[in-house]
Amino acid sequence: MSKYNADTVTLIQVMYVINNSLLKLRLKNINKVDLDKNIINVTKTKRNFSENFIPLSTNEIFYGKPMSFDRDNCTSNFIINDIDFFDLIKKEYELNKDLSDIYDKTIFYHYVIKDKQYVIVVRDIDVNKSRKDVYNMHGFKILNNVIDEKISNDSFIRQIDNSKLFFDKGIVKKKIFPVKLPILKSKPSKYKGMANTNIGSFDIETYKDYDGKSKVYALGFTTLDKLKDNIVKIFYLGIDAFTPNELIIKCIDDMLSSKNRDHIYYTHNLGGFDIVFVLHALRTVNSEKGFNYYIIDTKLRDSKVLKCVVRVKTSSGYSKITFIDSYNLLTDNLDNLSKSFGSKVTKGILPYTFIRADTLNYVGNTPAIEHYKLKNKIISLSCYKELYKKDWCLKTETIKYLKRDLLSLLEIMDHFNRYMFIEYNLQITECLTISRLALNIFFKRYLGQNLLPVIKNVSVFSFIKQAYYGGVVEVYRPYGVNLFYYDVNSLYPFASKNPMAGHICEYIESNEPIELSELFGFYFCKIKTQDNYLGLLPVHKNGLIMPNGTWFGYYFSEELKFAKEKGGYEIEVYKGYTFNKVYNVFDKYVDDLYEKKANSIGSSKLINKFILNSLLGRFGLSILKLNTEMLSTDQYAEILATKPVNSAIAISDKDWLVSYNRETSKKITSEHGLDYIKILNQKSYVDIENNHSFDDVAISISAAVTAYARIYMSKIKLEILEKGGEIYYSDTDSIVTNTELSSNLVGKELGKFKVEYLIKKAYFISSKTYCLVLKDEFVTDENKGVIIKSKGVFDNSLKLNDFLKMYLNHEDVKALKSDTINYSEGYVNIGTKEVTLKYDAYTFRTRIFNQKGRRINTKPIQIRLYSSISKSNKDNFNLETIPKTRLKKIKTIIDSVKDTELFKKTFIHKSCNNSGYSYETLEFFGDSILSYYVSKFLFKEYKNYDEGDMSILRSLIVGTQNLAKLSLEIGLNNYLVVNEKLPKETRDKIINNDKTLCDIFEAIIATIYLEKGEDILVKFLILTVFNNSITKDKIEKFYAEFLNSRVTPSSPSTPDLEKNELFQDSRDIVIPLSEKSMNQITFKFEKTKPNENQIASLLDKKNQSILKELVELSTKYDNIISHLNLQNKNDININIINLKSYIENELKLLDFNKKNLFKEIEKINYNIEKLNNLNSELENRLNRIEYILYILIVIPFILLILF
């Protein structure tokens, strides 16, 4: 007491403060958290994670009133509604031993919210973790095993039913949800006592008549019971029938007769040839009879017929035959198969170009040698001499040839059938493809206890599909000498021996980057590369490229880790699907089949090779594939009115082969005035997840295998470069290099490399288009020392000289390819047509040229697409590039003007002062044209918007980055001509500048109009600016977001829209217009199309003069800079680029204010007074700009003199 100078204590007053540092999180927008209904029960999850049952906090002060209790034995008077909650919990402890260790750490809270009462039972697990259970007042458990883990005073993790949300200051920062996936199961199969013997073969022979169409003149079939005696049934035009359709029907009726029915008839290339004639004939008869006399059931894939069942009703029931395409089971030509299977009957040869309607009964000397071709090449003279005779008969030779084909194919299929039955007790007649056979073998013998997921959840499948890339084909150097061509032994089977994704799956999503090292699965992420020679991650961009730059993409985790480790990639993962690892899934399957292949010959070797290589891709079968059916015209019309149709091919007057999306479209039904809900109720929608056709789809396997394969090939490439070697070409499983691989990489073992060729010299023009001149030890009678490959055309239509022309002379060359099918008229044109091979067709890497302008090397394409999309809205944009089919149509239009003088001027940059021309005049005109079409559309569709809002919407659609992106995607940047005297850095900045790319897009619009007219221009705009990838509703959504964030400018001048973040991200916005609706708003020009000079004369001369002066001035500056040898040269170059951009923006701003400019161009009636005022303003601006330029020019000279 002495310390306080007091004798007694009369009062003690205690003051305390409750530290509620862990505040309650009021997450009022839990219902706005984006959750996928295909992954979780959204309603249940949002209900459980709301505050309705338990507060969003780990601070128990918010849990309500704590109930009285005895910590020693947990007994008290806690009874509500005659329910003793202490006794209830005590019994749960006794039943659950896992809770016994936290028995004495239990606290009860009486929680009241919105007039509802609950009991929250809290059990502390450790200092930062606790378990909660929630009961209602009747003793029923509402929430079970809620686990809270405190991270900091502001953040914690809550887990309910294995779903986790990471809360930080009231915001959901991270989400983890379990994804329940079914497991791959082998289907039980009964032992089969013998192989199916009800098989046969069927074939058709055609001739190409004078009208260029192929027509049937002979066909036949045979069955296995007749094979021993070499008996076939042949039908010949003019003998058995007088028209091709009658001939086909006669043969089909014979096959449906009692002695031949119920057979499976194999036809090689059924879907691409024979079935066209058969379907046409059958449908024609049905049409003539007025009912379906022949009942046809087809199974199709990608518009190709895999199987066709034909039935007719008889007095005893139905008679049936089945056609199956044998090519899908044995994917090689019949001649090679005959040799591999050691067929007793070999394939013959016919003079197809000799056969016509008027030669069907020809008898005489053997037709001339030029009519006999193998693989589009005339046969040798020695072979022809063996064929020659004076009493040669076309009918006899055709029957002999057809008989050989029928017997040979049936012998092969019988051999194959017996082999599969003996080795695996499988019937080939139960499978339509070799991949299905391989899958059945895997399920039957090798799946075992491996738990692999079935991926038929639409969300999971769609996500992983975007991470499923194929093999990469790249040209690095176009020419080389003394090279090694290496192939990998069974690359994909080798890659499959890595860990696979198991059936335990979680979806994870975070606002902040997720640590990559602990992840295994498929993820969406941001990629940023170094300036590497080899790209290590693929991107879909009109094909598969391996670029440098920055982009967002979907990838397999192991490929991301490889790119980060070996390439220095910066990777930020934001969401994806995490799986458990499963090991040794395919090891035994791969090892067994590889050993069988290695230790067998002939047909056994070929069969085991097919089975080994066909399994892994089968798991990637798309569950989103279009449905392809044979429909009547009425059925087709019904589909058109309710579902998106991808393609439709007329089989006859009343029948269609239609590929369409199964899901009923609300948009399409409403456009046709139909009741969407009523249609849904009437039509049964196929639920993919309940469709057992997809019970063996595991795209996670296929995506992982292809990724592992790319990793392996990239490792080898990096090793070659590290040793100082060079790479010239690579395919999915091959590499061409000037360096011999290490001995440990070469051998016969799985995954090792073998030398396919030693090369004297090679020309690599494009992907899968090359010419190899071989060293002597690899020359054979067949290859003659030269290997030529060119995808899509006949290899023998090209010569070594063609590759010299393409490489040395930069010349396009001609080649031959096969022609098309026509279902509706029942013919297949098996002839050839000439196509052009472009010398500069390769665009998957950026070409590097020497001083003579010859391509000598390449480097990865620099990706800038999507780089300005922020993390918060990256998913709101369509990140897909232009589809290949649409891109092909766009390039066709561009090619149609490619040879014109105006096209060349379209891409001349103003830095090329010697040309006396640049693209700016055309850009000015094209900008007006584009502005008109977009304005007209907005006027029609957005009548409620005022002029200012319409201007903003127009800028959304034709913003600089949007048009720049289109320029890149359709390859306009490849045509740009920039002054070669400028430093490389400056040229690159010009070429990659958004403004430049935007300008040349507008310039090409003008060129297409001037050269091809309005109709072609409209098609071009539909394919590029106006397409259906984003709906009108989405445009309105983006516009609404913009309006919410827009700041009204303080000055009356036009705001710089392209600096607004929304417009930076709006480059993917396009308008959904069909060609029909586009035609309704086309601009009506005069009948006489104005030429270039007329357009130029329409523009103000003073404006032209100013532009010319600016070009000359900036060009002089460029030339000065290019000769200055200063350390800060790059900074100066950057300044000039910015200055040019400023000049151009200033000029364009003035043009924007000319509201009626385009209308005045059309009428050729300018308001001179208004233009004079504008030009006066331009002159004032020019004076200021000239002053700035003068300062920038003088300063470097002063610095040069001083230093």
TrEMBL record:
Record keyword ATP-binding present: no
Q: What is this protein called?
A: DNA polymerase
* UniProt domain RNase III: residue ranges: 883-1013
Which Gene Ontology terms describe the biological processes this protein takes part in?
A: DNA replication; RNA processing
What's the EC number here? 2.7.7.7
Sorted UniProt keywords: Coiled coil, DNA replication, DNA-binding, DNA-directed DNA polymerase, Membrane, Nucleotidyltransferase, Transferase, Transmembrane, Transmembrane helix
Q: Which reaction does it catalyse?
A: DNA(n) + a 2'-deoxyribonucleoside 5'-triphosphate = DNA(n+1) + diphosphate
Which EC class is the enzyme in? Answer: transferase
Which family does the similarity line name?
A: Belongs to the DNA polymerase type-B family.
Q: Which residues form a coiled coil?
A: 1154-1188
Taxonomic lineage: Eukaryota, Fungi, Dikarya, Ascomycota, Pezizomycotina
Q: Where, by residue number, does the polypeptide cross the bilayer?
A: 1185-1202
Q: Where is the signal peptide?
A: none
Q: Which InterPro entries match?
A: DNA-dir_DNA_pol_B (IPR006172), DNA-dir_DNA_pol_B_CS (IPR017964), DNA-dir_DNA_pol_B_mt/vir (IPR004868), DNA/RNA_pol_sf (IPR043502), DNA_pol_palm_dom_sf (IPR023211), RNase_III_dom (IPR000999), RNase_III_sf (IPR036389), RNaseH-like_sf (IPR012337)
Q: Which SMART domains match?
A: POLBc, RIBOc
| Pfam families found in the cross-reference section | DNA_pol_B_2, Ribonucleas_3_3
Q: Give one GO term, molecular function aspect.
A: DNA binding
